[in-house]
Structures are given as structure tokens and as C-alpha cells.
């Protein structure tokens, strides 16, 4: 099945495994919270037990260095794609309000990005993520 939109998550390649998983989960949640059209119907097994809905399309996870993350953020913003960011400072905070304050305190070009999610039309998103390898 082909989708008109794409979900891409880019994670800094030098993070610890637990950090990569944490960043990916938070960023995927950002896409889900802001794009209900990306969510499918709830699941149910053969016994009638219900389960939560998930994305209706694949989520592709890429690996990148710090410089590439900055380039992708800039390109995504320039192409008017929807972007969520996760910065190094967010590992040091304990709650959502502090996370927002940590991001707000730093100019866009100086954000110490450890991950970002990008959602939008497939063609501009593919151009934005071009050259990045899928996460191993």
C-alpha cells in the first residue's frame, strides 16, 4: 500500500541504546498527537480482547550524526514539513514543561539535537531525508 505521507524519525547514532529507544518513542508520540489521520483503527484479537490503535503506515527510523540532524531540521522547516525535536538537554529534565523550556532557551541553529521526527507529504520528506541510512 502506498501512502501520500511519510513518517521519518532520525536518531543520533552515538546515543546509548536506551536513549535511542526513548527518543524514538517520544518523537513517534509527537506525530501521533498532532496527526490523528496517521492513526489506524483499534485492534482486536480472535478472543475479542481490544488493543490500542497504532500508526496506519510505516515509521522509518534513520541514523545520523549531529551535523546531519541539524541539516535535516533546517531542510524540513524550509519545506514546511512538521517537525518534532528532542535535544540533549531534555535528558536532564524531569517533565514536559521543563523540556519545552529547554528547547525554548536555545536558538534553532544551536539546538543540540539527538533526534527529530518529520511528518509530511512523501516527496518533500524523501528529499529531506535523502542520503540518511536506516537505523541498523
Automatic annotation (TrEMBL):
The organism's superkingdom is given as Bacteria
A Pfam family this chain is assigned to: DUF2000
Please report the name of this protein according to its UniProt entry.
DUF2000 domain-containing protein
Organism whose genome encodes this protein: Actinoallomurus iriomotensis
Amino acid at each position: 500500500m502506498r501512502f501520500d505521507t511519510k513518517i521519518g524519525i532520525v536518531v543520533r547514532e552515538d546515543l546509548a541504546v536506551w536513549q535511542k529507544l526513548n527518543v524514538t518513542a517520544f518523537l513517534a508520540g509527537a506525530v501521533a498527537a498532532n496527526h490523528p489521520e496517521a492513526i489506524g483503527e483499534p485492534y482486536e484479537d480472535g478472543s475479542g480482547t481490544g488493543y490500542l490503535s497504532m500508526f496506519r503506515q510505516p515509521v522509518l527510523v534513520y541514523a545520523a550524526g549531529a551535523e546531519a540532524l541539524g541539516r535535516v531540521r533546517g531542510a524540513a522547516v524550509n519545506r514546511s514539513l512538521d517537525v518534532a525535536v528532542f535535544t540533549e538537554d531534555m535528558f536532564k529534565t524531569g517533565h514536559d514543561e521543563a523540556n519545552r523550556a529547554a528547547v525554548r532557551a536555545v536558538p534553532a541553529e544551536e539546538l543540540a539535537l539527538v533526534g527529530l521526527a518529520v511528518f509530511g507529504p512523501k516527496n518533500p520528506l524523501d528529499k529531506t531525508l535523502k542520503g540518511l541510512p536506516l537505523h541498523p
